[in-house]
Amino acid sequence: MSGSSTPSHNSVTDLRSFPEKIREEIRRWGPKHLSALPKSISSLHAEAARSPPSIVSSPTSQTDQDKVIISRIRTAIIALRGLCQTKINAYPFSSVPLPFLHLHTHSWILSALLRICTSTHDDTNVKDSCRWSDYMVTIPLDAIIFDIDTAFIIGGSSVPLRLRRLVNEFLEALYTAEEESDVDSSDDNSTHQLLVSSIKRFSCFCPPQYKQLIDSTYCPSLHATIPTLASPTITSFDAYMDQSSPRHTSLQPLHLTGLAADWPAFKKWNSPSYLLSVTNNGRRVVPVEIGTSYVSDCWTQGFRKFGLLLLDWLQHESKPDSSSPTVYLAQHDLLLQVDPLRADVLIPDLIHSATFARRDTSSAPKMTLLNAWVGPAGTISPLHTDPHDNILVQVVGYKYVRLYPAATSKAKMYPRGIENEIGIDVDMGNTSEVELERGCFGAIFGDADVLRLATSVSDIKGKHNENEENEIDGDKLSLLRERMLDKKKYRDQYEEFGWDGGFVDCILEPGDGVFIPTGWWHYVKSLSPSFSVSFWF
User: Fold this and answer.
1) Are 98 and 219 within one domain?
2) How many helices (H) and strands (E) does the chain have?
3) Which of 197, 210, 213, 356 has the fewest CB atoms lying closer than 10 Å?
């Protein structure tokens, strides 16, 4: 925090102009988006998007008429939010009518703007020369950002580009204002500044010492490595695919080393300070999965501030209580939600390769879907298959990937089928019942304790300094026998499964990618703190 009383590129007045620009954009797009809805809903939308009469006045200086109008706007926003939530709950999310997604987006963004209107200073105090701390301390930053992120998370790609850009510019202005002010007078701000300071004590998200762990602990566990293509180009990638396709009924996976070495993200995303700077000092809110994997009995979902997640991940390996649930940002289009991150990523040219254009010339080109995966060591994507070609790119940290061919008999993969969750039937046929952690032995699958191997930077020295006599410790051998027996019993439940063969695997290092063709079953485990991006196409 610089402590400057006025910002170098923005003014308080400029910052206050954003809400009206955003309202105008919502009013402009509203009729087009909502034309299929009843006029009563359109009228409610128009009331919610109305400019408050006291946008430059404090609540204490509002007239009775001003307060009535603001109350009507607030009531309209609450009504729209409730209506949208009812509709979203009534449909599978992929089938929610688009007008209601637009309405949901508008209502939550308007809610954020109303918070500013009803919390700012009297107009006489709003001058370019006023102290930023005097202005910013009145703005409920966390509540505003929560409303905006709720709009972006649910709205996803349906949020119009111009509206998204305006809102992101507004968030950037808020971040600049917070950085250039002395906002530390309230308990909430003091707590948040303590969080930011704690995160900035870490120099990197994934320490370089993890390279030693990968080479010594995990690489020896590889079984049948995926073919590798170094520094891939369209020409070299096409040549590999053209060479392999006549011999196989489907495309084959490929380990693409150095794929993302030229991305800005490759240099930036390992910095906790940078991740703070693009998430409004960690105030941005993201959806997370809580639990070992999405097939675990205790698995659930929720929203978290990115800063709290980041600190939890940074401290994860040193926590003595290993029973704490794993929190994972998984399969979320974070790059669409947090605009600066998108500029750090380049869509691989391979995705536009002629190889894929030849596969189905009768249909329109597919849209490339980007998802981010961020979390500590130990996060798992259970064995599953996707309906898309996929390039998974490792930007920060290391991941283990195991793949089974699409041609493998489905019965041997033991698909889960239809499952009922809170009264709703969910088709889980793309996910295997087999939990590799319970049936496979080795460091990758959680047996490092038996093998006396280091699994984090904090215990490298201690593990490697143990006496040689501990390698034949009786307690260790007893535990080893018990573990092997448990795993054999689990294997017997799925005797048709290819436990010891029929798959290929690899470890992704920073900058690497892996091409996963449609239909290939794959299991992914983070071996370190990890930040990955997947491209479905």
Assistant:
1) no
2) 21, 15
3) 197
